[in-house]
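User: Reviewer 2 asked us to show a designed sequence for the structure in our supplementary figure. I'm pasting the structure tokens here. Could you produce the per-position amino acids so we can include them in the response letter?
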């Protein structure tokens, strides 16, 4: 008798009409065979895959996407709850029946002449009580190989799926790649993601943002846990004690660099658990426990170097668990190596840009696309935490909310308590980046870095956060950080990267009650003497500016936060209005 998964796949095949169906077993051999096929398959701007210098970049391959398909397309992303109200002002909405009709029309025969890959996969370790079994179909071998890197794909997942009906389903087709026929739609009540017309990461690797954040946040709301856009890391102090923390930052704000940071502060080191997504559950001990449901990085290439992220450079060349993919980076023709802006060493003389066109150093355009990416297994990480595969996850002592803000937001602020911490997350704003289509550098509200990823009304989500706090007997402390504050000349005040450990050290000192803090209207900030600044050539006035709370700037910010909160009407928890009111009174006095 056919299993529910087989039946579902059968139905999708009837609709999409592929020439053949291939059930992926998730082995390296299979991935390499798909790469072989892709290397000989020509498309618009070259073969699907290009083999890179294997001596320097073991089992690494270059892929070029369609030039109009290079970032998440938030305006084409929908969350289709039965009621618009539940999707909230933070999501595009279409009535589910109507949405499915539209998608059915676009998907009819969309895989004609192509192979349909069936990808059974797990998000989370198969032995974890928090893991979820899923299946995705796709007509892109690039997506199939990427999913092998990013998830636990193969036989074990298929076993788990066998006797189940509640698995998460993902339908993906690149369709004709036309932006006018591109939709990424979510049906939370059906555990279904349906994506057509894009082959790009967050639009196409449905285990990632689509399932592990949008659908999972809804599952978490109903089941009492949180799916968050967060790094997970362990910080070992000179005594050998490890403190686990999570941090939410919008896309392309340095989560990956943070997660595998090489500490500039002696005696401290980072253990990496995840760079993008955390599932947070309340443990039997009343603490918050985190797992990373993924097994890979889909990271931004430009800016990655031995200075900014040496551990990522080592990860990319390690070659333990392969393949490794590069998407839309430039190609050094002399050495057959990938290249991007910010990489160590001189700019190569003979380069092809991300579209495969000859590139000259005086060219106005970047050689690598600003959102070019690598896809690499987390098992290649030299700093991988020994707890990574622990099915229970790790206990979290602190949560950090960070954004990219040139002005206003201090280097670090501690929330007065859980409720105030939730307010710190809810009031977050950040300047936009190339990770999503649209203008770069505008401040937009991005609560908990979840604006594009929360699968339901953010007002209801804030309430859920408050409820989780009430159920924790030992809640983590909550902090806001900002590495990006600028001086009058537009230069960063804080050196960032490995030096961020100095801020993390203060956070840990606060968690362990080793230091005090100074109360301001916006939260607790460090006494300057409590920051470990030895070896950092930072003038006192710069430091003061980094933690400055400028009341007139905050008055303007408060008006922005008000406008944002108002959108959620009755769904916005009273407690958050109270927090905003209290802050406003304190700022004005
Ligand atoms: O494209 S992804 O959503 O996977 C990456 C990102 O924007 O953070
Ligand atoms: Mn992300």
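Assistant: Here is a per-position design you can include in the supplement:
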């Amino acid at each position: 008798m056919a299993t529910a998964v087989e039946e579902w796949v059968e139905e999708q095949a009837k609709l999409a009409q592929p020439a053949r169906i291939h059930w992926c077993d998730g082995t390296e051999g299979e991935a390499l065979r798909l790469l072989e096929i892709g290397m000989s398959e020509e498309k618009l701007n070259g073969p699907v895959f290009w083999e890179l210098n294997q001596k320097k970049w073991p089992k690494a391959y270059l892929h070029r996407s369609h030039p109009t398909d290079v970032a998440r397309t938030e305006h084409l992303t929908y969350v289709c709850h039965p009621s618009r109200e539940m999707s909230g002002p933070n999501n595009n909405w279409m009535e589910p029946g109507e949405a499915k009709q539209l998608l059915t029309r676009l998907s009819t025969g969309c895989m004609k002449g192509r192979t349909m890959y069936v990808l059974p996969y797990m998000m989370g370790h198969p032995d974890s009580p928090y893991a979820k079994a899923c299946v995705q179909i796709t007509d892109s071998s690039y997506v199939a190989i990427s999913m092998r890197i990013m998830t636990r794909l193969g036989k074990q997942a298929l076993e788990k799926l066998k006797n189940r009906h509640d698995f998460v389903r993902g339908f993906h087709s690149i369709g004709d790649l036309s932006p006018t026929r591109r939709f990424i739609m979510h049906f939370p009540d059906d555990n279904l993601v349906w994506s057509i017309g894009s082959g790009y990461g967050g639009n196409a690797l449905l285990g990632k943002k689509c399932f592990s954040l949008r659908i999972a946040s809804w599952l978490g709301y109903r089941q009492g846990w949180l799916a968050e856009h967060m790094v997970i890391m362990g910080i070992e102090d000179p005594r050998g004690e490890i403190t686990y923390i999570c941090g939410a930052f919008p896309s392309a704000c340095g989560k990956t660099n943070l997660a595998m940071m090489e500490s500039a502060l002696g005696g401290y080191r980072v253990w990496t658990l995840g760079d993008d997504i955390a599932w947070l559950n309340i443990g039997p001990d009343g603490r918050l426990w985190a797992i990373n449901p993924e097994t890979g990085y889909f990271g931004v290439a430009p800016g990655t170097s031995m200075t900014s992220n040496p551990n990522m450079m080592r990860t990319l060349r390690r070659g333990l668990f392969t393949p490794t993919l590069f998407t839309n980076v430039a190609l050094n023709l002399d050495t057959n190596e990938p290249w991007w802006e910010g990489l160590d060493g001189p700019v190569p003389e003979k380069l092809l840009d991300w579209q495969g066109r000859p590139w000259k150093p005086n060219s106005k355009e970047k050689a690598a696309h600003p959102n070019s990416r690598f896809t690499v297994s987390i098992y290649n990480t030299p700093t991988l935490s020994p707890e990574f595969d622990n099915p229970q996850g790790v206990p979290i002592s602190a949560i950090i909310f960070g954004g990219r803000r040139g002005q206003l937001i201090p280097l670090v602020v501690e929330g007065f308590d859980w409720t105030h911490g939730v307010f710190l997350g809810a009031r977050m704003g950040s300047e936009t980046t190339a990770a999503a289509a649209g203008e770069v550098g505008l401040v937009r509200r991005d609560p908990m870095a979840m604006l594009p990823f929360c699968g339901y009304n953010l007002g209801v989500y804030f309430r859920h956060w408050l409820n989780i706090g009430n159920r924790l007997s030992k809640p983590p402390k909550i902090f806001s950080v900002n590495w990006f504050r600028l001086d009058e000349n537009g230069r960063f005040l804080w050196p960032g990267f490995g030096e961020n450990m100095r801020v993390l050290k203060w956070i840990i000192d606060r968690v362990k009650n080793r230091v005090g803090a100074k109360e301001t209207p916006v939260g607790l900030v460090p006494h300057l003497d409590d920051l470990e600044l030895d070896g950092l050539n930072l003038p006192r006035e710069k430091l003061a500016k980094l933690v400055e709370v400028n009341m007139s700037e905050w008055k303007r910010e408060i008006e922005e936060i008000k406008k944002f909160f108002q959108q959620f009407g009755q769904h916005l928890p009273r407690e958050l209005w109270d927090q905003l009111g209290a802050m406003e009174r304190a700022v004005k006095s």
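For the response letter, you might also mention the following. The first helix runs from residue 4 to 16. The longest strand covers residues 115-123.
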